[in-house]
What does this fold into?
Amino acid sequence: MNGQSGASKSHIGGPDGRPADATVARTEDAPFARLKKRSEFLAVAKGARHHESAFTLQALADESRQTPSQEPACRIGLTVTKKTGNSVERNRIRRRLREALRVSGMARGEIATGKARDYVVVARRETLARNFGLLQADLARAFERIERRLATHNSKKAPAQNE
It folds into this structure.
């Protein structure tokens, strides 16, 4: 069978060094809510931005989704352009970013302030070379800073609406 049976693979570790069974359990976790349509990505591109060495984070406060029963408060999209590398490298970048978001808790909405937010992470090639711990720290810092920027932008806009 050339090692293709599921029983022989159970001792092989996953990409992060955990047992293969742990990667199966990970898929049972609810994945983060994703942006899927081009129009959603284009809308977020008009919002606030924060630049890091390995990526750019774009964010938009989405007032149209303020009701909690509709969708998750936080949706995330990942973009890796063709100029960053071939398909293998682009997929590795996407996997690293997804895992960094999952491990740090940002993908589960722990960064959410209760308000509807859409985020897009535009990856650069440096994502591959960046230490994983530093990548997580960069993501956390970027989310904090962009949240502050959105909060100050919305607080400046709120008094104008009251007049």
